[in-house]
Design a protein that fits this description.
Strand order of the largest sheet: 3-2-5-4
Strand content: 25-35%
Largest sheet: 4 strands, mixed
Structural class: alpha/beta
Number of domains: 1
Order of helices and strands: HEHEEEEHEEH
Radius of gyration: 14 Å
Number of helices: 4
Helix content: 25-40%
Length: 142
């Protein structure tokens, strides 16, 4: 099931070709995604913006978390060594608060309280953010 943000995801993909993107992966996140893909197959992220770990990106087997009209597809992330892109979804409310920032998925030691696939590895995904530059905002059409 795809979310209402499908058009926004396509715009983000076009912006990548122009030198701007909404989201990126750290080297540690890329390495962990390769490991998780080997264990679980195709992957996806969802970030709800809810309480507790809700503001952390959760990684699931692709299709395991059902997205809907209240979710935005920010990007289909290319991960070196993973054959299919990893979709990154965010709740629309969270996206409205963060739409002016570039997000980087990173990994830190410790275990989150959610059902994210990395939990048994003793690490958790988190988001690092920075404001877009004027050039990035223009390229993204924001």
């Amino acid at each position: 099931m795809t979310g209402a943000g499908e058009g926004q995801a396509e715009a983000a993909g076009e912006a990548v070709r122009e030198g701007a993107s909404r989201i990126a992966l750290s080297a540690a996140a890329t390495e962990l995604l390769r490991l998780l893909h080997a264990q679980h197959g195709p992957l996806m992220f969802h970030q709800s913006g809810g309480c507790c770990d809700g503001s952390a990106p959760m990684c699931y087997p692709a299709g395991e978390f059902r997205t809907g009209s209240s979710d935005v597809l920010l990007a289909r992330l290319a991960v070196e060594g993973v054959p299919e892109p990893v979709g990154f979804w965010m709740s629309a409310d969270q996206y409205e608060r963060w739409r002016h920032t570039h997000l980087t998925v990173d990994v830190v030691p410790g275990r989150g309280s959610g059902f994210s696939l990395e939990a048994p590895e003793g690490v958790r995904f988190l988001i690092r953010s920075r404001l877009f530059t004027d050039e990035e905002r223009a390229a993204l059409g924001d």
